[in-house]
Write a structure and sequence with these properties.
By secondary structure, this protein is mostly helical. The chain has one domain (54-438). Helix content is 68%, strand content 2%. The chain has 17 helices and 2 strands. It is globular, with a radius of gyration of 23 Å.
Length: 439
């Protein structure tokens, strides 16, 4: 996904770590040591970042990436049932006025925008080096697929182990649903990435107008789904929006990368998308939440309704307008740029494992049988909101630990021999089969 050219930085400067006892006796010294190490890492990343690097793209991608786990952790809950099973729930069921939070945290439109732009630029560079399009595409898809195979294989092993340890089957089903949530997105991203060569041709020929038929397609499907003839329309019809609903922002990104989307077009996207979003909410009564809410008849996200590309349209316009300012900010702030680089290098790992981080805390917590505020209690009180906010640092630290352990899946599997690759693929297939039976 166009990660920075810092994938293989030089060896770091060796620092003698402080022992826990020394750190406790000299907290100021420990803090200073951490600050010095962080500054050295930021300086090293700065030195090895090419001058021509478009830092705004990496910054926008990092922003979209961080919003995904935050959205799932803040707008999703787990409730401990009477049988000790964990069930999915959402604070939006009780606090509908929090729906605008989902407008801010639902940044997949920006993610697809940046992905389309980065893919267009990468494909152009590869073509300039004489790399065939099919070779470029295989490399791109392999980078997306390796982390997915990794998390699926690990969960295929975990499921029988957890069941043997006494974890209720209902909790395991809930866990699988949470793990699969980000994986469907990866599947859609793989699909649109595979279409990049055709998206580039359309962008070069029609410019930003090449995204309009995608928006119109989603509008037609929504008209069929929600019109007065709804009862005569098959329930699967909405699935036809999966492709054009998410390809819309990706195509805008390709146009951006091809230089076919200027500032004037960005203003049109921002204002037009915002106006369409408001009309759909106020005049056509689309659900206000951008994420699914248990117990509701309609959802905007699975599959995407017209509200999704409308929001993406406004977000993409704003992102393009802020590009230069964001690039300048990331050139001034080395520490912030280092954070952006780190997030981008672990992009797929974060997407694949952030729900596992939450489950790592919630499943053991459910063993006590005592509802834990903010973790296994119903998300229907302000106490839950405050408790969940207090849990966020620990959930984030758990994710950081998981990323350190599983980031190897994202790198090329040069050290994994054929039989092991077959085993990983087999385990991933077993997890996929189980997931299809319970999701």
């Amino acid at each position: 996904m166009g990660s920075p050219d810092t994938r293989n930085p030089p060896p770091t400067t060796r620092h003698t770590p402080l022992s826990p006892a020394t750190a406790r006796r000299h907290p100021a010294t420990a803090t200073t040591t951490i600050a010095v190490a962080a500054a050295a890492a930021a300086a090293r990343i700065e030195r090895h970042t090419p001058a021509h690097r478009d830092r705004a793209l990496d910054g926008l991608r990092a922003l979209a990436l961080v919003s995904v786990p935050l959205g799932h952790w803040l707008l999703g809950g787990l409730t401990l049932g009477p049988g000790g099973e964990l069930h999915n729930s959402s604070p939006l069921t009780a606090f509908g006025f929090l729906a605008p939070v989902s407008w801010v945290l639902q940044t997949l439109g920006i993610f697809f925008l940046v992905g389309g732009c980065a893919s267009a630029l990468s494909l152009r560079r590869s073509a300039g080096r004489g790399v065939p399009t099919d070779v470029w595409l295989r490399g791109r898809l392999a980078r997306l697929g390796r982390p997915v195979l990794g998390v699926a294989a690990v969960w295929a092993v975990l499921l029988p182990v957890l069941y043997a340890a006494g974890v209720p089957a209902g909790t395991l089903r809930t866990g699988v649903v949470l793990v699969v949530q980000p994986l469907w997105f990866v599947g859609i991203y793989v699909l649109v990435t595979a279409l990049t060569p055709w998206c580039v041709r359309a962008a070069r020929r029609y410019g930003a107008w090449s995204a309009v038929p995608l928006l119109a397609s989603v509008a037609v499907i929504d008209l069929l789904r929600y019109g007065p003839w709804t009862q005569a329309v098959p329930s699967w019809l909405g699935l036809l929006n999966l492709g054009p609903g998410w390809l819309f922002a990706y195509q805008l990104g390709v146009c951006w990368g091809e230089g076919r989307l200027a500032m004037r077009g960005a203003w049109r996207l921002l204002l037009g998308g915002g106006a369409l979003f408001a009309v759909l909410l106020l005049a056509f009564h689309y659900p206000a939440s951008m994420v699914g809410v248990p117990g509701t008849a309609r959802t905007n996200s699975h599959p995407p309704s017209l509200l999704v590309p409308a929001l993406a349209c406004a977000q993409c316009g704003a992102a393009i307008l802020l590009r230069d300012r964001l690039d300048a900010l990331l050139r001034r702030r080395r520490g912030l740029w280092a954070v952006v680089v780190t997030v981008n290098l672990a992009a797929m790992t974060i997407l694949c494992w952030h729900q596992t981080a939450l489950l790592t805390l919630a499943i053991p917590g459910s063993y006590t049988g005592i509802p834990i505020p903010g973790l296994t209690t119903p998300p229907d009180t302000t106490t839950w909101i405050l408790a969940r906010l207090a849990w966020l640092p620990l959930v984030a630290a758990t994710l950081l630990g998981l990323v350190r352990l599983t980031h190897r899946f994202e790198a090329p599997w040069t050290g994994i021999r054929g039989p092991w690759r077959v085993a990983v693929a087999g385990l991933a297939g077993a997890f996929a089969w189980y997931a299809l039976t319970v999701v």
